[in-house]
Amino acid sequence: MASSSFDIDAPRWDQSTFMGRLNHFFNITDWRTVILPDSRLDEAKALVDSCRAGSVPPGTTEEQLHYAKKLYDSAFHPDTGDRMNLIGRMSFQVPGGMAITGLMLQFYRTVPAVVFWQWVNQSFNALVNYTNRNAASPITPKQIGVAYFTATSTALATAVGLNLYTKKAPPLVARWVPFVAVASANCVNVPMMRQQEVLNGIAVTDENGNKLGHSKKAAVKGITQVVVSRITMAAPGMIILPIIMQRMEKYKFMQRITYLHGPIQVMLVGAFLVFMVPAACSLFPQRCSMAVSKLEPELRDSIVSQYGQAVKHVYFNKGL
Protein backbone atom coordinates (compact mmCIF):
# COMPACT_ATOMS: atom_id res chain seq x y z
CA MET A 1 0.00 0.00 0.00
CA ALA A 2 1.14 3.56 -0.72
CA SER A 3 1.59 5.91 2.21
CA SER A 4 0.33 9.49 2.36
CA SER A 5 3.95 10.65 2.16
CA PHE A 6 4.43 9.02 -1.28
CA ASP A 7 6.05 11.59 -3.62
CA ILE A 8 4.23 11.06 -6.89
CA ASP A 9 6.29 13.72 -8.68
CA ALA A 10 9.62 12.10 -7.83
CA PRO A 11 11.07 10.72 -11.09
CA ARG A 12 11.06 6.93 -11.32
CA TRP A 13 14.19 7.07 -13.46
CA ASP A 14 17.27 9.28 -13.33
CA GLN A 15 16.46 12.20 -15.63
CA SER A 16 20.11 13.25 -15.83
CA THR A 17 20.94 10.23 -18.01
CA PHE A 18 19.73 9.34 -21.49
CA MET A 19 18.64 5.84 -20.43
CA GLY A 20 16.68 7.25 -17.52
CA ARG A 21 14.88 9.70 -19.80
CA LEU A 22 14.33 6.93 -22.38
CA ASN A 23 12.53 4.79 -19.80
CA HIS A 24 10.48 7.81 -18.78
CA PHE A 25 9.39 8.65 -22.32
CA PHE A 26 8.74 5.04 -23.25
CA ASN A 27 6.32 5.18 -20.35
CA ILE A 28 4.47 8.41 -21.15
CA THR A 29 4.50 8.18 -24.98
CA ASP A 30 2.87 4.74 -24.86
CA TRP A 31 0.42 4.88 -27.81
CA ARG A 32 -2.02 2.63 -25.96
CA THR A 33 -2.95 5.50 -23.66
CA VAL A 34 -4.66 7.36 -26.52
CA ILE A 35 -7.47 4.80 -26.67
CA LEU A 36 -8.47 5.38 -23.05
CA PRO A 37 -11.63 7.46 -22.46
CA ASP A 38 -11.40 10.94 -20.95
CA SER A 39 -13.18 9.66 -17.84
CA ARG A 40 -10.29 7.27 -17.16
CA LEU A 41 -7.75 10.05 -17.64
CA ASP A 42 -9.69 12.34 -15.31
CA GLU A 43 -9.71 9.58 -12.67
CA ALA A 44 -5.93 9.37 -12.98
CA LYS A 45 -5.63 13.15 -12.58
CA ALA A 46 -7.85 13.07 -9.49
CA LEU A 47 -5.65 10.37 -7.95
CA VAL A 48 -2.48 12.34 -8.74
CA ASP A 49 -3.99 15.51 -7.22
CA SER A 50 -5.04 13.57 -4.10
CA CYS A 51 -1.57 12.15 -3.69
CA ARG A 52 -0.02 15.61 -4.07
CA ALA A 53 -2.37 16.85 -1.36
CA GLY A 54 -1.17 14.08 0.93
CA SER A 55 -4.42 12.11 0.99
CA VAL A 56 -3.86 8.81 -0.82
CA PRO A 57 -7.14 6.84 -0.94
CA PRO A 58 -7.06 3.79 1.37
CA GLY A 59 -6.04 0.57 -0.38
CA THR A 60 -4.16 2.37 -3.20
CA THR A 61 -0.93 0.63 -4.20
CA GLU A 62 2.26 2.30 -5.41
CA GLU A 63 1.80 0.58 -8.77
CA GLN A 64 -1.63 2.19 -9.14
CA LEU A 65 -0.12 5.58 -8.33
CA HIS A 66 2.68 5.07 -10.87
CA TYR A 67 0.12 4.14 -13.55
CA ALA A 68 -2.04 7.15 -12.69
CA LYS A 69 1.04 9.39 -13.03
CA LYS A 70 1.83 7.76 -16.38
CA LEU A 71 -1.65 8.61 -17.67
CA TYR A 72 -1.43 12.10 -16.20
CA ASP A 73 1.94 12.81 -17.85
CA SER A 74 0.74 11.43 -21.19
CA ALA A 75 -2.46 13.45 -21.38
CA PHE A 76 -2.17 16.61 -19.24
CA HIS A 77 0.00 19.65 -19.89
CA PRO A 78 2.88 19.98 -17.40
CA ASP A 79 2.42 23.76 -17.07
CA THR A 80 -1.36 24.15 -16.92
CA GLY A 81 -2.58 20.73 -15.78
CA ASP A 82 -5.24 20.90 -18.53
CA ARG A 83 -6.03 17.80 -20.60
CA MET A 84 -4.35 18.15 -23.99
CA ASN A 85 -6.16 17.51 -27.25
CA LEU A 86 -5.77 13.91 -28.35
CA ILE A 87 -4.00 14.49 -31.67
CA GLY A 88 -1.46 16.86 -30.15
CA ARG A 89 -0.23 14.49 -27.45
CA MET A 90 3.19 12.89 -27.83
CA SER A 91 1.51 9.54 -27.16
CA PHE A 92 -0.37 10.05 -30.46
CA GLN A 93 2.89 10.45 -32.40
CA VAL A 94 3.10 6.75 -33.22
CA PRO A 95 -0.41 6.22 -34.68
CA GLY A 96 -0.61 9.70 -36.20
CA GLY A 97 2.97 9.89 -37.42
CA MET A 98 3.03 6.40 -38.91
CA ALA A 99 -0.07 7.04 -41.01
CA ILE A 100 1.01 10.44 -42.34
CA THR A 101 4.71 9.61 -42.83
CA GLY A 102 3.97 6.28 -44.47
CA LEU A 103 1.63 7.94 -46.96
CA MET A 104 4.10 10.78 -47.63
CA LEU A 105 6.75 8.19 -48.47
CA GLN A 106 4.35 6.26 -50.69
CA PHE A 107 2.86 9.18 -52.62
CA TYR A 108 5.92 11.26 -53.53
CA ARG A 109 5.89 11.05 -57.32
CA THR A 110 3.27 13.63 -58.33
CA VAL A 111 3.07 17.29 -57.32
CA PRO A 112 -0.61 17.15 -56.18
CA ALA A 113 0.16 14.18 -53.90
CA VAL A 114 3.24 15.91 -52.50
CA VAL A 115 1.26 19.09 -51.82
CA PHE A 116 -1.60 17.27 -50.12
CA TRP A 117 0.45 15.07 -47.80
CA GLN A 118 2.89 17.83 -46.86
CA TRP A 119 -0.11 20.01 -45.98
CA VAL A 120 -1.58 17.22 -43.85
CA ASN A 121 1.77 16.67 -42.13
CA GLN A 122 2.35 20.33 -41.34
CA SER A 123 -1.19 20.69 -40.02
CA PHE A 124 -0.48 17.77 -37.72
CA ASN A 125 2.88 19.23 -36.68
CA ALA A 126 1.39 22.64 -35.98
CA LEU A 127 -1.16 21.09 -33.64
CA VAL A 128 1.54 19.04 -31.88
CA ASN A 129 3.79 22.09 -31.51
CA TYR A 130 0.97 24.21 -30.11
CA THR A 131 -0.16 21.47 -27.72
CA ASN A 132 3.34 20.88 -26.33
CA ARG A 133 4.45 24.50 -26.10
CA ASN A 134 5.55 26.12 -22.86
CA ALA A 135 2.09 27.30 -21.77
CA ALA A 136 3.51 30.14 -19.68
CA SER A 137 3.93 32.05 -22.96
CA PRO A 138 0.47 32.57 -24.54
CA ILE A 139 0.06 32.85 -28.31
CA THR A 140 -2.74 34.63 -30.16
CA PRO A 141 -4.93 33.09 -32.89
CA LYS A 142 -3.32 35.46 -35.41
CA GLN A 143 0.17 34.29 -34.46
CA ILE A 144 -0.97 30.67 -34.72
CA GLY A 145 -2.29 31.38 -38.22
CA VAL A 146 0.93 33.07 -39.34
CA ALA A 147 3.02 30.21 -37.91
CA TYR A 148 0.87 27.59 -39.61
CA PHE A 149 0.93 29.40 -42.99
CA THR A 150 4.70 29.98 -42.85
CA ALA A 151 5.60 26.41 -41.91
CA THR A 152 3.21 24.88 -44.42
CA SER A 153 4.47 27.17 -47.20
CA THR A 154 8.08 26.25 -46.38
CA ALA A 155 7.31 22.52 -46.52
CA LEU A 156 5.36 22.81 -49.76
CA ALA A 157 7.96 25.00 -51.46
CA THR A 158 10.78 22.66 -50.42
CA ALA A 159 8.92 19.48 -51.36
CA VAL A 160 7.58 20.69 -54.71
CA GLY A 161 10.86 22.37 -55.65
CA LEU A 162 12.93 19.30 -54.85
CA ASN A 163 10.36 17.02 -56.45
CA LEU A 164 10.75 18.87 -59.74
CA TYR A 165 14.53 19.13 -59.36
CA THR A 166 14.98 15.39 -58.78
CA LYS A 167 12.97 14.21 -61.82
CA LYS A 168 16.22 13.15 -63.48
CA ALA A 169 17.96 12.07 -60.28
CA PRO A 170 18.27 8.44 -59.10
CA PRO A 171 14.94 7.08 -57.76
CA LEU A 172 16.24 6.86 -54.19
CA VAL A 173 17.03 10.58 -54.12
CA ALA A 174 13.42 11.37 -55.01
CA ARG A 175 12.25 9.15 -52.15
CA TRP A 176 14.25 11.28 -49.70
CA VAL A 177 12.51 14.52 -50.74
CA PRO A 178 9.75 14.16 -48.07
CA PHE A 179 12.35 14.03 -45.29
CA VAL A 180 14.16 17.14 -46.50
CA ALA A 181 10.82 18.95 -46.65
CA VAL A 182 9.84 17.76 -43.17
CA ALA A 183 13.23 18.75 -41.69
CA SER A 184 13.07 22.19 -43.32
CA ALA A 185 9.53 22.79 -42.13
CA ASN A 186 10.38 21.74 -38.57
CA CYS A 187 13.04 24.45 -38.49
CA VAL A 188 10.23 26.93 -39.19
CA ASN A 189 7.15 25.35 -37.62
CA VAL A 190 8.43 24.94 -34.07
CA PRO A 191 9.96 28.44 -33.64
CA MET A 192 6.99 30.11 -35.33
CA MET A 193 4.39 28.27 -33.26
CA ARG A 194 6.33 29.19 -30.12
CA GLN A 195 7.35 32.68 -31.19
CA GLN A 196 6.02 34.32 -28.03
CA GLU A 197 8.68 32.51 -26.04
CA VAL A 198 11.38 34.00 -28.26
CA LEU A 199 9.84 37.48 -28.29
CA ASN A 200 8.97 37.77 -24.60
CA GLY A 201 11.18 35.17 -22.99
CA ILE A 202 10.38 31.97 -21.14
CA ALA A 203 9.83 31.69 -17.38
CA VAL A 204 12.95 30.49 -15.56
CA THR A 205 13.22 29.30 -11.96
CA ASP A 206 15.85 28.29 -9.45
CA GLU A 207 16.43 24.68 -8.46
CA ASN A 208 13.49 24.79 -6.06
CA GLY A 209 11.02 26.17 -8.58
CA ASN A 210 11.08 29.79 -7.42
CA LYS A 211 10.47 32.09 -10.39
CA LEU A 212 13.41 34.33 -11.27
CA GLY A 213 12.18 36.08 -14.42
CA HIS A 214 11.89 35.54 -18.18
CA SER A 215 14.71 34.76 -20.58
CA LYS A 216 14.75 34.91 -24.39
CA LYS A 217 18.06 33.04 -24.50
CA ALA A 218 16.56 30.19 -22.52
CA ALA A 219 13.65 30.09 -24.97
CA VAL A 220 16.02 29.86 -27.95
CA LYS A 221 17.94 27.02 -26.29
CA GLY A 222 14.78 25.07 -25.48
CA ILE A 223 13.24 25.52 -28.93
CA THR A 224 16.51 24.57 -30.68
CA GLN A 225 16.61 21.32 -28.71
CA VAL A 226 13.00 20.59 -29.66
CA VAL A 227 13.76 21.14 -33.37
CA VAL A 228 16.71 18.74 -33.18
CA SER A 229 14.52 16.17 -31.41
CA ARG A 230 11.74 16.44 -34.01
CA ILE A 231 14.12 15.97 -36.94
CA THR A 232 15.80 13.05 -35.17
CA MET A 233 12.39 11.49 -34.56
CA ALA A 234 11.59 11.47 -38.27
CA ALA A 235 15.05 10.74 -39.69
CA PRO A 236 15.46 6.94 -39.38
CA GLY A 237 12.06 6.08 -40.82
CA MET A 238 12.24 8.63 -43.62
CA ILE A 239 15.87 7.89 -44.58
CA ILE A 240 16.22 4.15 -44.01
CA LEU A 241 12.71 3.05 -45.05
CA PRO A 242 13.03 4.37 -48.65
CA ILE A 243 16.16 2.21 -49.02
CA ILE A 244 14.29 -0.83 -47.71
CA MET A 245 11.29 -0.22 -49.95
CA GLN A 246 13.40 0.35 -53.06
CA ARG A 247 15.09 -3.02 -52.55
CA MET A 248 11.88 -4.84 -51.66
CA GLU A 249 10.07 -3.53 -54.74
CA LYS A 250 12.51 -5.43 -56.97
CA TYR A 251 11.04 -8.74 -55.82
CA LYS A 252 8.23 -10.22 -57.92
CA PHE A 253 5.91 -10.80 -54.98
CA MET A 254 6.11 -7.07 -54.15
CA GLN A 255 5.37 -6.17 -57.77
CA ARG A 256 2.19 -8.26 -57.55
CA ILE A 257 0.92 -6.43 -54.45
CA THR A 258 1.56 -2.80 -55.32
CA TYR A 259 -1.77 -1.91 -53.67
CA LEU A 260 -0.25 -2.97 -50.34
CA HIS A 261 2.89 -0.83 -50.60
CA GLY A 262 1.20 2.05 -48.79
CA PRO A 263 -0.03 -0.04 -45.83
CA ILE A 264 3.36 -1.79 -45.63
CA GLN A 265 5.16 1.55 -45.39
CA VAL A 266 2.71 2.77 -42.76
CA MET A 267 3.37 -0.28 -40.59
CA LEU A 268 7.15 -0.06 -41.04
CA VAL A 269 7.13 3.63 -40.12
CA GLY A 270 5.17 2.68 -37.01
CA ALA A 271 7.89 0.19 -36.08
CA PHE A 272 10.49 2.95 -36.32
CA LEU A 273 8.40 5.48 -34.38
CA VAL A 274 7.65 3.15 -31.47
CA PHE A 275 11.31 3.49 -30.59
CA MET A 276 12.19 6.87 -32.13
CA VAL A 277 9.46 8.94 -30.42
CA PRO A 278 10.76 8.22 -26.88
CA ALA A 279 14.39 8.18 -28.06
CA ALA A 280 14.12 11.63 -29.69
CA CYS A 281 12.27 13.07 -26.68
CA SER A 282 15.09 11.72 -24.48
CA LEU A 283 17.94 13.51 -26.26
CA PHE A 284 17.68 16.48 -23.89
CA PRO A 285 16.28 16.82 -20.35
CA GLN A 286 12.67 18.01 -20.19
CA ARG A 287 13.62 20.33 -17.35
CA CYS A 288 16.28 22.25 -19.22
CA SER A 289 18.99 24.19 -17.40
CA MET A 290 21.14 27.16 -18.29
CA ALA A 291 24.03 28.86 -16.50
CA VAL A 292 23.16 32.26 -15.04
CA SER A 293 26.30 33.63 -16.70
CA LYS A 294 24.77 32.90 -20.14
CA LEU A 295 21.51 34.78 -19.53
CA GLU A 296 20.67 38.28 -20.75
CA PRO A 297 22.66 40.92 -18.81
CA GLU A 298 19.53 42.43 -17.23
CA LEU A 299 18.23 39.12 -15.90
CA ARG A 300 21.68 37.96 -14.87
CA ASP A 301 22.30 41.17 -12.91
CA SER A 302 18.87 40.92 -11.29
CA ILE A 303 19.53 37.37 -10.09
CA VAL A 304 23.01 38.22 -8.82
CA SER A 305 21.75 41.30 -6.96
CA GLN A 306 19.08 39.25 -5.17
CA TYR A 307 20.88 35.97 -4.58
CA GLY A 308 24.57 36.70 -5.03
CA GLN A 309 26.42 33.60 -6.21
CA ALA A 310 23.94 31.20 -4.57
CA VAL A 311 22.10 30.61 -7.86
CA LYS A 312 24.40 29.18 -10.52
CA HIS A 313 21.79 27.80 -12.95
CA VAL A 314 18.21 28.53 -13.96
CA TYR A 315 15.67 25.88 -14.99
CA PHE A 316 12.74 25.87 -17.40
CA ASN A 317 10.39 23.54 -19.26
CA LYS A 318 11.65 23.31 -22.84
CA GLY A 319 8.42 21.77 -24.14
CA LEU A 320 8.34 18.75 -26.44
Please, could you describe this protein's structure?
The protein is mainly alpha-helical and 320 residues long. 62% of the residues lie in helices and 6% in strands. It is built from 13 helices and four strands. The chain has helices at residues 18-28, 38-52, 62-75, 93-106, 111-131, 141-165, 171-175, 177-193, 195-200, 216-248, 252-256, 261-281, 297-307, and strands spanning 202-205, 211-215, 287-291, 313-317. The strands form two sheets. Strands 1-2 form a two-stranded antiparallel sheet. Strands 3-4 form a two-stranded antiparallel sheet. Strand 1 and strand 2 form a beta hairpin. Helix 1 (18-28) packs across helix 12 and helix 2 packs across helix 3. The chain is globular, with a radius of gyration of 22 Å. The mean pLDDT is 84.
Short structural description:
With 320 residues, the protein is mainly α.
How would the blueprint of this fold be written?
Layout: H1 18-28, H2 38-52, H3 62-75, H4 93-106, H5 111-131, H6 141-165, H7 171-175, H8 177-193, H9 195-200, E1 202-205, E2 211-215, H10 216-248, H11 252-256, H12 261-281, E3 287-291, H13 297-307, E4 313-317
Antiparallel strand pairs: 1-2, 3-4
Helix pairs in contact: 1-12, 2-3, 4-5, 4-12, 5-6, 5-8, 6-8, 8-10, 10-12
| Largest β-sheet summary | 2 strands, antiparallel
Reading side by side through the largest sheet, how are the strands ordered? 1-2
Rg over CA atoms, rounded to whole Å, is 22 Å
How many strand elements? 4
Share of residues in helices: 55-70%
Mean pLDDT: 84
Structural class: mainly alpha
The span between the termini is 33 Å
Note the run of SSEs as H and E.
HHHHHHHHHEEHHHEHE
How many H/I helical runs?
Answer: 13
Strand content: 5-15%
> Would you identify the regions where 5 or more consecutive residues have pLDDT less than 50?
none
Shape: globular
